[in-house]
Amino acid sequence: MSVWEQYSIDQRNEYIQFLQVYGALSNLFRQKQGDAVPHLDSKFQETVFAKIFDSENVDIGNTPHDVLSVFGTKRVGIGLKTWMGSRPSFQKVMQLKRYKNEIDAYKTDAQSLAYKVSEIKNERMSSDYVRLGLTDTDNIYHYITRDKGLFSIHECSYPLIELSKIRVTSCTETGIGWSDGLKDYKYTFGDSQIWQKFDAEKYNTLLLNRFDIKIIKDPFSFLLQSYLKLAETLREEENNNNFAEVYLPLYSFKSKQVEEKSGLNAWNAAPKSKGSNIPRPLNEIYIPIPIDFHLKFRDFFCPDITAVIEARKLDRTKRPEIRFHIVLPNGKTIPALLTGDNLKNFQSGSLTEQDQFGNVYGQSALGQWLLVDVLGLKSRKLVTKEWLEQKGTDSVRLWRRKDDYSLIHIDFAPAGAFEAFMKGEPIPEADE
Fold it and tell me: Model-level pTM?
């Protein structure tokens, strides 16, 4: 059964209606009116897909999967794409600018080059499997091709590259092409991009639906009239925004670096027992919270965190704690708390906490997911801000329901997200 068939008929029909409406507004997005090929913005596609199919937008900037759908215990990562023309064509699927120097070292050997690029692609996909709790077999591309007055919806498999079956098909001054027997790929040197060939006739590809798009000649008048009718409704929806969202840095806001013995390098601090030579666990970390954040966003972790900080200073024998649970993108929930002077440490729960199944959680639980499983730290190597940026991040995004301090969701955010958030600027998008 296709992923498309696992959504309800009503959901599928509503999704198509949204696409038809957006396509009808194509003349808003081009200077020359009358072009018969309808327009579709990729960000709109992501947003409406997540909305209609009760899915989660999990794209944190140049990550392999855009949306996560959950069917019972099955979690499906979905890459969303759209382009003009339904003929077989290569489309960009991954940006590797951060790996350019590493890849260029293999340019003298075509087979080794294809293998290295494929290996990096697989590693990034595997990292996203861990982040989102995915298997390596159930994920798909959902893509829409656009022809004259027409949208076509397709679904195809989204596998890892079979490294043992790589066969180079072309090698020129501008790039290299290869196949693993299932999919065809190419890597272009100038922009450091991996491209994949999408072909409706190839392996595990389905045509899900095809429908006409009627383009409105004058969409400006249509939008103005529609807006005036719905203005009051829009104001009510704005007032009913039920979520609070913030960002935290994975580095010291003061020094702009990852400190050597704290934060993501807390595992490198002195042993917990005085005189002991036993190092701390590799995954023992905390996310540093600047006091500037607490002063500016007093009500994110509790109604007034500055009052709690002052109470802790006045009576150190009865230090109030702020406890909650973190919801990871992979669906797991772990206990957590704020601790340390000025409640500056965001970390997973104490060593004595257990869930309903008897699993014991400690300060290592968050670090295991964030630092080891997703970011791939495998040895006692100091984390640096440069290393984080190579991974495409230096911040995390947190969000919760406005009326609920007990559950806080977390995911990675693009590099520069925290600094932009503190300045009230738009959150930057990762390099594409």
Answer: 0.83
